[in-house]
Amino acid sequence: MINRLKFGVVLCAAVILSAACGGGMGGLPGGGGLSGAGAGGMDSSCSGDFGTSGAAAKLEAFLLATSTFVGTAAQLESSLKDTCLQMGAELGIPESEMAASGNTPAVKAACDAVSAKLRSEMNDLRASANLRIAVVSTPPVCEVRVDAYAECAGSCDATYTPGSAQIQCEGGEIRGGCSAQCEGSCSVEASGTCSGSCEGTCSASCTGVCQGTCEGTCRTRAADGSCNGACQGTCSGTCSAGCTGSCSGQCVVRAQASCSGECRGGCSVAMTEPRCTGTVTPPRIEAECQASCDARMNAQAECTPGSVEVTVTGNVASNLEERVNHLKAALKMGLGNILAIKLKLERLAGAANAMGRTARDLPGAVGTLGLSAASCVSNAATALVPATGSITVSVEVSASVSGSAGG
Description:
Blueprint: E1 2-5, H1 54-90, H2 95-98, H3 106-128, E2 132-137, E3 141-145, H4 146-156, E4 167-170, E5 174-177, E6 185-194, E7 197-202, E8 206-218, E9 227-239, E10 243-254, E11 262-264, E12 272-276, E13 279-281, H5 287-299, E14 302-304, E15 308-313, H6 321-365, H7 371-405
Antiparallel strand pairs: 1-4, 2-15, 3-12, 3-14, 4-13, 5-11, 5-12, 6-10, 6-11, 7-9, 7-10, 8-9
């Protein structure tokens, strides 16, 4: 799916390394979203103004992107490790079994131990106690600020003027505020009835399709035991239509006119604070600029974990209750964050190769800027290597944990 959006932006008057031009920084708030931008260990002398030439603009964009990319890679590795340690503690794994040894990265040691414990617990409880365990998670959502991408492109490539051409959102949808006719769907925070799709928890009855867990009677179930049909009871996940009780979460309805919440899909006028849940594809800009903007914007993407529900069906003997409760608590505590971290890591991994190529090609383009510029490119290229390695390891271990959990 491709969404197109026209908008105008005002470029920052300060140099592009100014925080006012950079976009939000943050960490991993409990239950909140993932954001990231860090100093990335770059030398402070590389954060200066290299001039007004096209070569200087490319260099500044690349250095800012590298700093953000490297810092975010470190943040995500740390968040992933901490989440695994918390899940491991809930599962009763001794700290010594999650500690790194030799050349094994700390994140791999912690998450591999959790992955193995999850797999053994799930298999043992299913086989020995004849329990049916269903883990259902709603997908995380990552959003990239479209206006920030346009600012980045305009700052790097003098031939691109923000607002002069359309930016595309591929594999996702445009979301934002709409002061006129919302041409897609409208999502509002719900705490009552919902005539559309309920993303969250629908109590009483879901006469549409409940995709998630059903505490009650589910008409149709998927192979993993999750509900995939009408639910007479409480549906946690997504009720596609017909939530006759109370919806707690987001109520998404087909837009008829104005939208007081978040408009998804399109608006008859320019959206405010537009965000893309897929891949931002700009009009034609220079390859070095696109690589830098892709890396920086994906590093600054806001990724919100989805909900996680765990249902255990069968006769849970008294001697197994504690194990089952710890398993459920660990999954609900950490799986949503693991999946959100994994999605953001995959975005960064997709940008890593292009950044590596830019690091190799850029010295020729910035040779006129002097030895200081060349040294900064060299430092950035050096910093990208361990950051890319960290991302590769983190993607692998996050996939292992989510796979063991059935996420």
